[in-house]
Amino acid sequence: MLASGVLTACSGTAADHAPVPTSAGPTPGAVTVAVPDVVVTVTNPGAEPRTTLARHATPDATQQVSLTANSAITQTVGTNASTDQSSPDVTLPIAASQHGAADAPTHSVGLVVDVPSSPDSTLAAALLKAKGSRATLVAGPDGAVKQLVLDPPADLSDAGRSAVEQALRQAVQFAPVLPSVPVGVGAVWTVSQQINSLGLGVRQDTVLTLAAVRGSTVTLAVQVTQTPLTPTWTLPNDQGTLNVDSYALAGTGNITVDLTKPLPLDGQVQLTGDQVYSRPKDGLKITQKVSNGVSWKS
């Protein structure tokens, strides 16, 4: 049996679901998703004057922001007709609150979701019960998310739960990480991490360029590439393996961050690409066209 799922860009390893305590007081159904560590490499410190861009939101900082996630996938198996395995766009209106000082070694950001929306009427109806969904981001002063805690309402359907979770996972995947050394305008740094997407290990490199600094507001240009770590994709649910014949997934964007706020203010990142896989026993080709990304709006 061939994988009916698709290789989507999502942050973190396969979900390590287990209840965890948070300052937001999760329900017994709350789960935590581990997020892989990142390595930050500064390749150009930029122009003088330089300063350290650590977040410094105060413990009582709040923010209203809208997060939209999209995911489009078209898959073709052999000579069969292509199938659309896309997920409808989802927009989450989020109220964020800072828990603990943002410049501490570890702090958390509490998220409360108002009624999400989607252009898909069926999903939009399911998402009505997503109002009040909570999540917690555990992060460092550089903005690197270490853990994502999900706490949706108990009566939310599987479809609604999955849509909210995937949107937040994509937000974590593209969360901007800042360098720990002083940088100036024109600075360039790379944020590298290894992610596991449905059994395929992938290295994601995000190159950030400091485009502008105005007070506490920072504008970043973003370039993202993904590269498979192995020549073989081990399919989930004991479905066997596929050879990775070719893999291209890359994209660009921009993000504006207020260092006194817990989440990005505005911006978008969009990845697109094509992948080709083959079944070892008979060479059957499976091709995918992928596009996914997020946008923020305050």
Task: Please give a structural write-up.
This protein is mainly beta and 298 residues long. It has helices at residues 121-126, 158-173; strands at residues 31-34, 39-44, 62-77, 83-84, 87-99, 107-113, 134-139, 145-151, 188-197, 200-214, 217-228, 232-234, 241-258, 266-278, 285-297. It has a 15-stranded antiparallel β-sheet that branches. A hairpin with a 7-residue loop joins strand 5 (87-99) and strand 6. The longest helix has 16 residues, at 158-173. The radius of gyration is 19 Å and the shape is globular. The model is unreliable at 1-24 (pLDDT under 50).
> Helix tally?
2
Low-confidence stretches: 1-24
Task: Tell how many strands the DSSP assignment holds.
Answer: 15
Binned, the helix content reads under 10%
Overall body shape: globular
Could you spell the SSE succession in H and E letters? EEEEEEHEEHEEEEEEE
**Main β-sheet description:** 15 strands, antiparallel
Mean pLDDT across residues: 89
Tell me what portion of residues adopts beta-strand conformation.
over 45%
Using only C-alpha atoms, the radius of gyration works out to 19 Å
Structural class: mainly beta
Q: How far is the first residue's CA from the last residue's CA?
A: 45 Å
Secondary structure: elements and pairs:
Elements: E1 31-34, E2 39-44, E3 62-77, E4 83-84, E5 87-99, E6 107-113, H1 121-126, E7 134-139, E8 145-151, H2 158-173, E9 188-197, E10 200-214, E11 217-228, E12 232-234, E13 241-258, E14 266-278, E15 285-297
Antiparallel strand pairs: 1-8, 2-9, 3-4, 3-5, 3-15, 5-6, 6-7, 7-8, 9-10, 10-11, 11-13, 12-13, 13-14, 14-15
